[in-house]
Amino acid sequence: MTTRYRVEYALKTHRRDQFIEWIKGLLAVPFVLYSQPTGVFADGDSISKVGEEAHRRYAEIMRDIELMIDDHIMHQNQDDPLLSKLRMLVPTAGPFFTRLPLEAAFKYQDRKRHISSRRYVAPSFNDVRLVLNSAQLMAVNNGALQLATFDGDVTLYDDGESLLTSNPVIPRILDLLKKNIKVGIVTAAGYTAAERYYERLHGLLDAIAGSTDLDTTQRQNLIIMGGEANYLFEFSASSRWLLEPVPRERWLTPEMSKWSEADITALLDLAEAALRDCIRTMRLPAEVIRKDRAVGIIPLSEARISRESLEETVLVVQRILELEQQRQKQHQRRTSVMGGGAASLTGRPVPFCAFNGGRDVFVDIGDKSWGVAVCQQWFGGIRPEGTLHVGDQFLSAGSNDFKARSVGTTAWIANPAETVELLDELADLMQKKLE
Ligand code: IMP
Ligand code: MG
């Protein structure tokens, strides 16, 4: 996924996070006005003065955005979101479950990344993304974090790899459990058997089993939500693969239990036909994989499917499925007007998530908003402001982690090393709170 910011792609609106771009635009103004690109030969004193001035200006802007988010939250809580100024400026701005201390977060990241000292490179997309992450960590730390959920591929380990014993994220996750924070691995990888999850996650599972620090309850505070929102496993020290599948009737939310098997099969059939069409028309070196709750395409042996083809496939399948769901809704509305009765009005379309997984494309039943919601419910009804989902997919077509934004707070990382850094930052904040 490292090449995904290639200019050609970044220019497309569907590949932009408007909130981050907007903040970047605001920071570009003091950068243009105060940076001294011609002063390469200036003395150290005047260079550091310029840096201080840029720092002050950037921090002021972050403070102003922070206040605008407060105003947005006030209107959101009063149920009149249209009056939010932020919403006028960034129409895609979603709900905020916590306030965001952006000024403090900026100061923290500026100490780390020396953003204000740069004279040629303006505050970037990644600078802003990391400031937002820090602000979110500060906010959940204040509001007492209860549940941390993690995506798998690219967040905990490299794409397609497994969580090995040597992975530095393991002691950090154990530390969360030790602090009585619940942990969910919410991954799109969908398997019905515990053995497959053990294969992918054994480093973490073995570490939990072998830990002398964790008590039985803390161990039980790890769950795996697989296939986005389709398979739940709980930790079980006595099971062969250290995981025990939990039957659906014990964890489906009331809304999810209304999804009918017939609708699920029909949706996957349609998705499969659309994927086969894409393979044919774009001559993709790919094969179709059909599972009970997902359908996808994966590359044939050594082949690689180009990123453009993967994105095109996602957009095509998404469109076809959405059109079909709209057509069904219209049909239901018409039949109910003509006296079809209440039965036809209850049929809600089954949610799905079509996304580009980097090397493959999958269409899953449900999405990570449902997966994280199941974790919240499983642990007794944890609120969105007490939940943090960490993931890498917030921008690519389908972006499966983005969906979690509607049920909890989120942190957007670019690789597993950033997840480790993020957890260290969180541990520092928690330590400071205790001092
Ligand atoms: P995540 O990053 O942990 O959400 O995992 C996404 C990756 O899991 C995809 O890119 C696929 O390579 C892999 N995967 C395996 N099985 C499935 C499935 O049933 N649905 C979606 N992705 C799957
Ligand atoms: Mg991922």
TrEMBL record:
GO biological process, one term: nicotinic acid riboside biosynthetic process
Cofactor(s) this protein requires: Mg(2+)
Main EC class the enzyme belongs to: hydrolase
Keywords on record: ATP-binding, Hydrolase, Magnesium, Metal-binding, Nucleotide metabolism, Nucleotide-binding
One Pfam short name: ISN1
Catalytic activity: IMP + H2O = inosine + phosphate
Entry EC number(s): 3.1.3.-
MF terms (GO), sorted A to Z: 5'-nucleotidase activity; ATP binding; magnesium ion binding
Annotated function: IMP-specific 5'-nucleotidase involved in IMP (inositol monophosphate) degradation.
Subunit structure: Homotetramer.
Protein name: IMP-specific 5'-nucleotidase 1
